[in-house]
Write a structure and sequence with these properties.
Blueprint lengths: L7 E8 L4 E10 L5 E9 L1 H4 L7 H23 L8 E7 L3 H18 L3 E5 H13 L5 E6 L4 E8 L2 E7 L5 H11 L6 H9 L24 H18 L4 H33 L5 E5 L6 H13 L3 E3 L3 H4 L4 H12 L26 E2 L2 E2 L2
Parallel strand pairs: 1-4, 4-5, 6-9, 9-10
Antiparallel strand pairs: 1-2, 2-3, 6-7, 7-8, 11-12
The structure holds 5'-O-[(R)-(carboxyoxy)(hydroxy)phosphoryl]adenosine and zinc ion (ZN).
5'-O-[(R)-(carboxyoxy)(hydroxy)phosphoryl]adenosine binds next to helix 5 and helix 6.
Length: 369
């Protein structure tokens, strides 16, 4: 279905692939910018806090409980009635399978009950299309996805057309921030706490590794970094019997600087590759929870300035997991003629670039590619 002269589409989106249960309503009329009418997110941090990571079974059960409530809240917040919804978009992967299944089942029930179309959405495509939702960025553009579960460079050419230039071969940066926080006794999620503590630290005190820096290509690695941090921490404890505030701050600052260096260098490589292919659209967009980090943002902005490239980062609420991005990606897919039926499957893995080789590993938040 293609949006006609003065057509309006109202999409209800559902997201439950990790530890956020979310529902949102997005509306788009021909020739106008898309509008987020409501976006509800119920996090599960409290449920998983005691376990030091997301427990898939607990997450799935909580999603099943919270999905209906989230849909009701999204409807109430938007003032839209269920009968006004044109299609249901739902994250069908990649992610923790129990959670994805909860969302897909809920979406199937709603679509069947209302007699309206169902559109399965790739969670990563949701993140990758967010710059179009927030800033109407035109295709193609270069995308850096950095979160607790993902880290990849993608060229976005259409709602179903992505080329992956590279990605992490082990941990995602958010995971590395979370582990660093855990090793230093800082609260979760680790990203914001490490960033805050790093402000009063010396980034040069510890020379942490910058893995894969000298290798060609855009692949990244972050697992060696936490091992180096662990060793540095243990060396201080062995020598002085404990960590001072300053030790902690210096460890955080040195760790963060290593992440910034790696991301900056690899982004420069990816940008060069992208600009060689699409010199007319110099745009780099970043999304994912780690994009909230101001040192990382500043590093990426420097690279963009060097190559006269526009830098866009969605507002934080839309960088982290949410359902508005799923509703919007579903809207684009639907407009492009895609529709699913009751056979829509929940997929733990679902690479965006069908031609790229599978990435290694599966983080605490599910599959990375
Ligand atoms: O996108 P997101 O909400 O969830 C997924 O992983 O899909 O990202 C969460 C991750 C966590 O690992 C968190 O520590 C990290 O993003 N994060 C940050 C910052 N804020 C959140 N990492 C570095 N600096 C931050 N300011
Ligand atoms: Zn995500």
């Amino acid at each position: 279905m293609v949006l006609g002269m003065s057509e309006t589409l109202t999409i209800l989106g559902l997201e439950s692939s990790c530890d956020d249960t979310a529902a949102a309503i997005v509306r788009k009329s021909t020739g106008t910018a898309p509008e987020i009418l409501s976006s509800v997110v119920h996090g599960q941090n409290d449920l998983h806090a005691a376990f030091g990571g997301v427990v898939p079974e607990i997450a799935a059960r909580a999603h099943a409980e919270k999905l209906d409530i989230s849909v009701e809240e999204a409807l109430a917040e938007s003032g839209i009635k269920l009968s006004e919804i044109d299609a249901i978009a739902v994250t069908a992967g990649p992610g923790l399978i129990g959670g994805v299944l909860s969302g897909v089942m809920c979406a199937k029930g709603l679509a069947a009950g209302l007699g309206i179309p169902l559109v399965g959405v790739n969670h990563l495509a949701g993140h990758a299309l967010t710059p179009r939702l927030t800033d109407q960025v035109a295709y193609p553009y270069l995308m850096l996805l950095v979160s607790g579960g993902h880290c990849q460079f993608l060229i976005a050419r259409g709602p179903d057309e992505f080329t992956r230039l590279g990605g992490t071969i082990d941990d995602a940066p958010g995971e590395a921030f979370d582990k660093t926080a855990r090793l230093l006794g800082l609260p979760q999620p680790g990203g914001p706490s490490v960033e805050t503590v790093a402000r009063s630290g010396d980034p040069k005190r510890f020379a942490f590794p910058r893995p894969l820096m000298d290798r060609p290509g855009c692949d990244l690695s972050f697992s060696g970094l936490k091992t180096a941090l662990l060793r540095a921490r243990d060396a201080i404890i062995a020598e002085k019997g404990g960590l001072t505030e300053q030790d902690r701050a210096d460890l955080c600052a040195s760790f963060q600087e290593a992440v910034v260096d790696v991301l900056r260098k690899k982004t420069e490589r990816a940008l060069k590759e992208y600009l060689a292919l699409s010199p007319d659209n110099p745009v780099l967009a970043v999304a994912g929870g780690v994009a909230a980090n101001s040192a990382i943002r500043a590093g990426l902005e420097t690279v963009c300035a060097k190559y006269q490239t526009q830098f866009t980062a969605p507002p934080l609420k839309l960088c982290t997991d949410n359902a508005a991005m799923i509703a919007y990606a579903g809207l684009e897919r639907f407009q492009a003629g895609h529709q699913d039926d009751m056979h829509l499957a929940a997929r733990p893995r679902w690479p965006l670039d069908k031609r790229a080789p599978a990435m290694l590993g599966s983080g605490k938040k599910g599959a990375k590619a």
